[in-house]
Task: structure prediction
Amino acid sequence: MAWFNALLACVSLVLGLLHLVRLATARRDGRPAAGEAAHAVMGFGMAAMFSPVGDPVPPAVWIAAFGLSAAWFAALALRTGPASDDAGHHVVCGVAMLFMLSLGLGEQAAPAGGHAHHGSASPAAWTSVVAIVLAGYFAWHVMRCGDRFAAARRVRISLTEPVPAGAPVEIAPPPVHSGSCGHAGSPVEGRLAALRAPGAAAVAHLVMASSMAVMLLGMI
Result:
């Protein structure tokens, strides 16, 4: 399965680069930069996890990055309330990455640790439960992003179709921040418009959530 991991590593790397482009244009498009930065770091972190040639970045760097991301968005969610679903999604992403990093470090330390675990339930039992729950969340998020992509596509088509003579002219909806799935909004103009559009964000997050679900299910 080395070829499959290499493919997913390349896909994750492309997603990280895509979100770097979106991060550079976030202020111009009126999007929150913190969300794009978190997605970029997650894409690069997933590429490192999938890479069959190893990770050149020390685990402590990834732990610090995803721990900071989870804490930042948890504080944001507490300030803004339940309406901030994008902040909640970033918290889950950070926790999921920390969970997988901790398992990887545990496997590396297992030969030196001996048989230190004694109890009624083996560590593999609870880790499998957590992995299944997180994979279920990301599978749900895939469907959510599919709905967001369809909504963005409907908005784009409605704004580009000619208005019949005599029909009332509707004002285009204002741009909406593209969060964890890329909310539907007005089409973006200018350079790299296709990469900056809400539909591109929805597809990128759909692929990223699918890759996360695959990675978590592989740990069961």
Q: What stands out?
A: Residues 175 and 185 are 5 Å apart (CA to CA). The chain has a mean pLDDT of 82. The chain has one domain: 2-106+124-162+173-217. The helical segments are 2-24, 26-29, 33-50, 59-80, 85-113, 123-160, 193-196, 198-217.
